[in-house]
Design brief:
mainly beta, Dex49a from penicillium minioluteum complex, domain 1, 4 domains, 35% strand, binds 2-acetamido-2-deoxy-beta-D-glucopyranose, signal, Pectin_lyase_fold/virulence
């Protein structure tokens, strides 16, 4: 079925035309879209404004560890999908090296591949997007992501958003772009809006400190070079909402408490309850080799409440000369213990359930420097329908009762897409759920051989855990990895982890009863030396560290499918302290049915004999005919495959349908 976008129908135009202007004179893509009533309907395409960020550090002249060789750019557009409708989209790539000759993908392809069949030309394609989410449009082959040029890809992301349920309240104060103070208080009990017409760039770091009962709205297309924080107290009822951009662009002053100390190195960093962040795009366009930080962290379980005159330094947790660092007496916000493990007695404005826990939805986090992490929404936090593209740990389920669902991750040259924590303070860490995660790309094979230093493998799930908290009962379900990845699980528990918070005796908590129900890799791991699947508990716990503080990985259950096979014990380096590892093969409920394709037994097709384009000239060896069909089905430029059952070679073909030669 091919569609015809030239048939005109009534258009419901809810796209942000004109509001978003390309930052660069030469656009890398043109995007047109319109709202249609169904996958067979059409509408009148309208040009959509795009924005672009490129690697902000000039890697040609600056030798900066922070870039980890990551180059390229992301062009993006925010689109609105009204309930019950679909979007018809036409994309043209202007990037010289991009063509559909080797394939055309709109990822996550598991979501898009049933939405009809697009029209794909050499540098142009039109297709439908029938659900909300974040979609990568790629004129590139499947194999492209296995090699270094992938680090320089010019990406196009289409963010398909819902209509906002919280409009800008009438009477909201328009935030001025001329007030030059470095710190501006917002609230309490007030509503604000960043206007798309203003130029929010003050030439230096700018912080908005948010207070109770405060709404901060972004008009569609508003671009604000600032950060929004509150780490000196716990606040309640904060809404940050809108399809605008919050951009950390300038170096932070060193160590100003509540502004730029290590607890506050976040584009959004807030302590409190009922904090909601909706729709925002968070970027870091700082062109210098910048310090570490996060896109978003609410109730960070590794940082204290800021106290005037005594900035928190993350280095306080690094002393490796004693069983445990000598912790200062620092006041917890919502953690059960203070930093020195004394009891916290003040839980004002702390979430007690998902009802008053923080929610992060339709947020997009895109940063370009090592040490700029993604999203951690803390205890009772929910992160949903969001996108993370970073060169460090992407999502960080580090705390009890978190929910991370429907998240698309593009992991760049370093980091764990799903990171299990480093330096959580001592308190139970249980019952978090991570479900429906689409890792559309994973370039961390680029650094996996040398990082982390302990050879524990920088895989899709894992970390080097150095906390006295016992982590238990986490459930991960349906983690889909679409392209090249180093390995599945690389998890180590270590009392000498670089960032650590062991108990006062130097004990690290065990990780108990984690269940990974469905971890799917569309391709075999990208082979390389110095990395791989790895599991290790603490290799030599102190004598006083017993029971759940002995640092073991206990009863880890992994149901997986790596290009048709389940992970086996032989796939792992298992060092010490791993008890009750349970591995099984998973079935991908979203795998295509063979019945959709017609079998022509004993036939071939090639250019001149049915096919118009031989997408895979040489073919690729795969494990099964089903996997061969999967390769074709997720590539929207592919119409059929030639499968050689003897050698396992799979070749994709395009053509008008006259196959079976
Ligand atoms: C993810 O989103 C889809 C709709 O796009 C929905 O059907 C599914 O239930 C969501 N997953 C979770 C875990 O809520």
């Amino acid at each position: 079925m091919r569609m015809h976008p030239d048939v005109l129908h009534l258009t419901l135009l809810l796209l942000f035309t004109n509001l978003l202007q390309p930052t660069y004179a030469t656009a890398k893509f043109t995007v047109k879209a319109c709202v249609a009533t169904s996958l067979t309907d059409s509408c009148t395409l309208q040009t959509v404004g795009t924005k672009i960020v490129a690697q902000p550090v000039d890697t040609s002249s600056t030798k900066c560890e922070d870039t980890v060789d990551q180059k390229g750019s992301v062009t993006w557009a925010d689109l609105i999908l009204p309930v019950g409708k679909v979007l018809l989209v036409e994309v043209q790539t202007k990037v010289a090296s991009q063509t559909s000759g080797g394939g055309f993908f709109v990822r996550p392809s598991r979501k898009t591949r049933e939405w009809g069949k697009p029209t794909v030309a050499n540098k142009k394609a039109s297709f439908y997007l029938a659900d909300k989410g974040q979609f990568s449009v790629e004129f590139a082959s499947q194999e492209y992501w296995q090699a270094e040029p992938a680090l320089s890809f010019d990406a196009l992301m289409l963010f398909v958003n819902p209509e906002l349920v919280n409009p800008v309240p009438s009477g909201a104060t328009v935030i001025s772009d001329s007030d030059s103070s470095a710190l501006v208080d917002l609230g309490p009990n007030k509503n604000y809006v960043f206007s798309a017409d203003n130029t929010y760039d003050w030439g230096a770091d700018k912080v908005f400190k948010v207070h109770d009962n405060t709404e901060i709205h972004f008009e569609a297309g508003a671009h604000v070079r600032a950060r929004i924080v509150q780490t000196e107290k716990k606040v309640e009822n904060v809404l940050i909402s809108g399809y605008g951009t919050l951009d950390t662009h300038y170096d932070l002053e060193p160590d100003v408490v509540g502004v730029s100390d290590d607890a506050t190195h976040q584009t959004i960093g807030i302590y409190g309850k009922n904090i909601r962040v909706v729709g925002l795009t968070i970027v870091n366009t700082n062109p210098t080799c910048a310090a570490w930080g996060y896109c978003l962290n609410i109730n960070a379980n590794w940082s204290p409440i800021g106290v005037a005159g005594d900035p928190f330094e993350a280095d306080e947790l690094q002393d490796q000369t004693m069983p445990a660092p000598t912790y200062k007496t620092r006041q917890a916000h919502c953690q059960e213990k203070n930093m020195d493990d004394s009891d916290n007695t003040n839980f004002d404005n702390c979430p007690t359930s998902h009802e008053d826990g923080q929610t992060v939805s339709f947020v997009k986090c895109m940063t370009w420097q090592m040490g700029q992490d993604g999203i951690n929404a803390g205890k009772y936090g929910t992160v949903e329908n969001s996108f993370v593209r970073v060169i460090d740990d992407a999502i960080k389920p580090w705390d009890s009762h978190g929910v991370y669902k429907n998240i698309t991750i593009w992991q760049q040259a370093l980091g764990w897409p799903i990171n299990f924590g480093w330096w959580n303070w001592n308190q139970p860490d249980l019952g978090t759920v991570v479900e429906d995660i689409y890792v559309i790309h994973n370039h961390n094979w680029h650094t996996s051989a040398g990082w982390p230093e302990t050879a524990s493998g920088q895989c899709v799930i894992g970390g080097i855990y150095g906390s006295g908290s016992v982590k238990s009962g986490y459930k991960l379900k349906n983690i889909y990895v679409e392209t090249a990845a180093s390995c599945a699980v690389g998890l180590e528990i270590s009392k000498s982890a670089y960032s650590r918070h062991p108990t006062a005796d130097g004990c690290v908590g065990s990780i108990v009863g984690i269940e990974i129900d469905g971890l799917f890799f569309d391709e075999e791991f990208k082979t390389g030396t110095g990395y791989g699947n790895y599991l290790s508990g603490e290799t030599s716990p102190y004598g006083t560290c017993t029971g759940d503080l002995s640092g073991e990985i206990k009863n880890l259950k992994i149901s997986s499918n790596v290009a048709g096979r389940g992970l086996l014990v032989s796939d792992f380096t298992v060092v010490a302290g791993v008890i009750g590892l349970d591995l099984s093969k998973a079935v991908d409920g979203q795998a295509v049915g063979l019945e959709k394709y017609v079998l022509y037994e004993g036939k071939n097709t090639y250019v001149g004999a049915g096919a118009e384009v031989e997408t895979d000239v040489n073919g690729v060896v795969v494990g099964s005919v089903l996997q061969c069909l999967e390769r074709c089905h997720c590539d929207w430029s592919c119409d059929c495959v030639v499968w050689d059952a003897v050698g396992g070679e799979c070749s994709k073909r395009q053509g008008g349908g006259n196959f079976g030669i």
